[in-house]
Design brief:
Elements lengths: L13 H6 L6 H8 L1 H4 L4 E3 L5 E6 L4 E5 H10 L6 E5 H22 L5 E6 L6 H11 L5 E4 L2 H10 L6 E4 L5 H12 L3 E6 L4 H12 L4 E6 L23 H13 L6 E6 L8 H20 L6 E3 L23 H16 L8 E4 L3 H4 L3 E11 L16 H11 L6 H20 L5 H21 L8 H4 L1 H4 L2 E5 L3 H4 L1 H6 L5 E3 L9 E6 L8 E2 L12 E3 L9 E4 L6 H4 L10 E7 L5 E7 L4 H7 L4 H17 L5 H16 L7
Parallel strand pairs: 4-20, 5-6, 5-12, 6-7, 7-8, 8-9, 9-10, 10-11, 11-12, 14-16
Antiparallel strand pairs: 1-2, 2-3, 4-13, 13-14, 13-19, 15-19, 16-17, 16-18, 20-21
Helix pairs in contact: 5-6, 5-12, 7-8, 8-9, 11-12, 14-15, 14-16, 15-16, 23-24
Amino acid sequence: MNASPTRPSLPPMTPLQRLGLDEWSPEASAELYGIREWGADYFDVTADGQVCVSVPFADRKVRVPLMDIVAGMKARGLEMPVVLRIENLLDHRISLLNDAFARAIDKAGYQNHYRGVFPIKVNQQFHVIDEIASFGARYNHGLEAGSKAELIIALSQLRDNDSLIICNGYKDAEFIELGLYAIQMGRRCFFVAETPAEVPIIIERSRALGIRPLIGVRMKLSAKVDGHWAADSGEQSIFGLTPAQLIEIIDLLKAADMLDCLQLLHVHLGSQIPNIRNIRLGVLEACRYYVNLVEEGAPMGFLDLGGGLGVDYDGTATNSTHSMNYKLDEYCIDIIETVAETLDPQEVAHPVLITESGRATVAYSSLLLFNILDVRSPETTSLPDQLPEDAPELTINLASVLEQVKPQNLQESLNDAIYYRDEVYELFRHGQLTLRERALADSYYRATLYRIARLLPEARRISPELEVLPELLCDTYYGNFSVFQSLPDIWAIDQLFPIMPIERLNEKPVRQAILADLTCDCDGKIDRFANPNGEMTTLPLHPLRDGEEYHLAVFLVGAYQETLGDLHNLFGDTNVVSVRVNEDGSFDFIKEFYGDCIADVLSYVEYHPQSMLERFRNSAEQAVRSGRISVAMRQQMMEAFSASLRGYTYFER
């Protein structure tokens, strides 16, 4: 489990305190939300207070406000929530990775080349894989498949025979046959043995088809990594071979006269590795296995170092779970230098280097946009000018506590307020206070808490009990999305994503809030937020305005979120838009996909929408016969039922 989140100091946040209560600017918003730290130069705040996407071109960057894209979506009938994919950013990430390795290879005098491979499991969506295969062809960028379905994707999408296909996971005969046919067609498709049991199947199928396979072996490393997946790294990893199993495979291949087919060593250091020192240590160990495989007589030639290249979700640039303490160039040169320095003394030829960077390739290119539907504030209603003459003594006491709150007695005031509140609860439970009396007492209690919270910055010392008060008094902003469908890692593995409003950033965000989604589930909320100043348990937001939408975005969601989402409360896939930004600052809507309608998600759970419509018609007709409704009302009901089946599963204005 992650460490307990850092408690926020009393809002307003640090930039507010530094600028003063009456000053604000888009620059302050940029600092408050940390967009320039986690945004990797892809996102920024404009002078008029909007979040923009910044797309690199050859000699300059082009900035487009996200609200302009939102306006284009709405004009096309695409309502919130929407997953926005920015194709330029995906292309740029592929270029960055390949170019960084090319620079490192040139600088170190490395005697071979790099081949990138994208793990399909990270984002299996067709238009993501299609863009990677299309743009990546100039770099011979390949794909990694962990199942037969993913292998079929790789075989159909890759255009380039020099791009690698790496087959991981457990492989049956059908899986192996597909890969062998690909090899016969000229594709470089490697079967990576995860267990000795796979090797006899590879041998048997290759003999039956008369096709020599390309074989790799995946080794468990003793080196462990930091971060969320630390427990799955090292010798406790559920994937990979032990040294004894590796020897068993070598002997199997020798006996089958197929040792020449063993050409690749695969290791997976870990996922989202925050600490560069883990990477260098793991690469060093992998090279030792590589040298020994060469000494055993395997020709080798390929070293696959798996994934692990991190994404700085919180912008801290540290070795914390949601960050990384290294840059891409450092990552590449550390790998290149470690491989060369280990192999050169053994006079082993430099292999083709492969990495399977998934998260770092696609995370930045997608974001979730949604609107806020409502706000619930625990703040008290207005208090009466004076207490009623028949007010209970406990209410009078609470009013007295409120009047006497000062910076010097905050803890004492809190203690007294809690004591009198508990007494009120007790009397109400025993029928000695009315509902109206309870409500008035509760209003004075909450007013006291708010006054204490406002005075916290003036206090000399703040106890832990007082420190969490702003969090307890925060608002709940209800967002038009489902955590379980669009942000499952928040719920499942406590992943942090950058979240912020995309408009009104020239205004002070004077409210502190958590986010709740549309599901009827207590876990359907976000109450931990990434920030370069430390993880926060509330998010600074603006008050809603009557008649105006308020839009937020969750950034860096391109990895895993779309495929892992589930149908909690039958909220389905969201609308999806792919946009390409042009050099002149315009942008094109390349692809538009409407999210699931209610009929779609009902069919996923084995209902038949047409049968449901017919059953409802029968019920309505029975109501007509019994005189409960008119024929006209029946028709109105049928139209509403039918329209709902066709409607978006999310909130529609």
